[in-house]
C-alpha cells in the first residue's frame, strides 16, 4: 500500500491529503487479508503524520476445533512517517531511528508495515469460533461441536491413573 507523497512533502507544514485505502495485507504464514478504509496524511516538520481508519478481513483458525474463521477487524492508528531525504532529494541531517516508519528516498510512503504491526497487536492469542467451543476429541479427532464420541469415558490421563484405580476399587466394595 504505497503512496507517493513527493507533492505533499514539498508543501508547507500542515498540508493535508486524504486517500482511500484498498489492498491486501500479506504477512508471513498467513493468507492475504483484504484491507480497506481511508487515511489522512498531514505534512509535519519531519515527515508525514498518517491517521488511518481501516477495516481488515481477518482470517484465523479456531484454537480449539481448527475451524477457519473470518471476521472484520477495525484498525485505527496515528503514526508519523519520517523522511530520509528532504524535498530536494538530499539526505536529512538527523537520520530517523531504525525502528521508525519512514518515507523512502523516492518519497514513497508504505503503510504495509504499520498495518501489519497494528493487526498483530490486536490479534487474539487463542481465537475461538465461539465462546463455548468444545474443541476436538484428543483421541479420535472428532469435532465435539458437531457430534459426541465414545472416547471420553475410555480416556484416562496417566497422571490421574492412580486415583482412577482407587475409584474402581471403591466401586467394587459397595
Structure description:
The protein has 174 residues and is of the alpha+beta class. It folds into two domains: 2-122, no CATH class; 137-174, no CATH class. 19% of the residues lie in helices and 34% in strands. It contains four helices and seven strands, in the order E-H-E-E-E-E-E-E-H-H-H. The strands form two sheets. The protein has a five-stranded mixed β-sheet. A two-stranded antiparallel sheet has the order 1-7. It is elongated and about 90 Å long. The N and C termini lie far apart (73 Å). The mean pLDDT is 86.
- Helix/strand-derived category reads alpha+beta
In whole angstroms, how far apart are the ends? 73 Å
* Count of strand segments: 7
Average pLDDT reading: 86
Helical proportion, percent range: 10-25%
Q: For the largest sheet, list the strands in their spatial order.
A: 2-3-4-5-6
How many structural units, i.e. domains? Answer: 2
Give the uncertain stretches in residue-range form: none
The geometry reads as elongated
What radius of gyration results from the CA coordinates? 26 Å
Biggest pleated sheet: 5 strands, mixed
What is the string of SSEs from the N terminus onward?
EHEEEEEEHHH
Strand content: 25-35%
Count of helical stretches: 4
